[in-house]
User: Fold this.
Amino acid sequence: MKKLTLLLATLLIIVACKKENKTEVVVQNKVLNTIAPVSKEIMESAVIYEANIRQYSKKGDFKSFTKDIPEIKKLGVKIIWLMPIFPISETKRKATGGEFASLIEDKTTREKMLGSYYAVSDFTKINPEFGTIDDFRDLVKTAHDNGIYVILDWVPNHTGWDHTWLKTNPEFYTKNAKGEITDPLNEDGIPVGWADVADLNYDNKDLRNQMVKDMSYWIEKEDVDGFRCDVAGSVPTDFWQEAIPQLREKKDLFMLAEAWEPELLKNNLFDMAYGWDRHHVMNHISKGEKRVMEWDETFKIDNGRYESDDIIMNFVTNHDENSWNGTVKERMGDAAEAMTALIYAAPGMPLIYSGQEYDLAHRLLFFEKDEIPHAKGNMWAVLEKLGKLKNTNIALHGGKNAASYSRLDTKNENVLAFERSKKNSSLIYVANFSNEEEIVLPFFNGTFLDYMANTKIETGKESMILKPWEYKILIK
Assistant:
């Protein structure tokens, strides 16, 4: 009887629970909440959130972010992308202005310089600036309990100058004619400008194996759900062809490439790439430098180079754009809300960057402590409403089985209109992308819900007047 009791006490009992996308696992009377595997269906309606832990709160730690995950969920977020969480090298640590922190004479100023997240000194450790490994585990568990996946920002192209490989495995790095390890170089041999990092050499097979091993650690030991891979196009494609299948064998993953190259999305490598061209066009149109036809041309190019199951990440801001090129308001002005709605309405997956939901109006410092606001203003309500629509209306599916996209002819060079459809659902996005009031002649018929205004609208009977930068999402 005692043996039977002992045997029963050690059995693993798995209880399936259909609540959101979670399953409940009971191990020796201890309940562990785990999220259901990433699936194509989930990708269709997902919003992704880029979390800048350092700047998210006054403390800049995991705990402060973790407590807000239930709020972030209200924005329709299904994937959280954490900017690099690893220790940052002290050697050649970058400071505001681009110089090395070590060259700053004033100690107080020097200590404020925390360096770039992308100068990693150890791929298997936690940056103490953010907390402990237990704090990180609590973040992942809280996200999973809320039906949200967590992906890590991975930096495969280079390391910081403190990384142990520089001493133990110098053969992992790129060297110049003198045999010196170099920072990343352009094809012509001129430095890219990232002097705070050392370039990795993927001709070395042992490096490849170690990189896969380090990535596997976070999947197997810490239950992360995938990776956003920094400058993925600068790493040989054949490395990804070796690595990603090995990683996917361990768990269903979501893989985001900071790249545009179509080959990185082929054969189940990365799930999603950056819509850089779309983003740049939105900036140009917002400034009056381009017209709507430029969006059409860009969309046509995307259709030609990407396959139907490739996912494009749409965004109006991210960590690079905010810190180096300006806030959404700086770059897009009065067009900001219409462009934000566009990244939800167009095929693909929309991105929210930390602070965007709180009308972030300043450029976040990159190499030292800063903080986003936390007062809910106009953009919170907009993103919450757009997130709900993205999550629930199949006409906005933007994944591997995306809803169709049909451009509608408005007979107006300043007005963009298109219809998204899937099965029996459809909606229309229409926007005036100019500083002038535009009269839109009837170009479609029917009774629609003006979603953002929550009012009914009859079309096809009379012309529609759109104020400067006004947009509508019309649901049949």
About this structure: The longest strand covers residues 12-19.
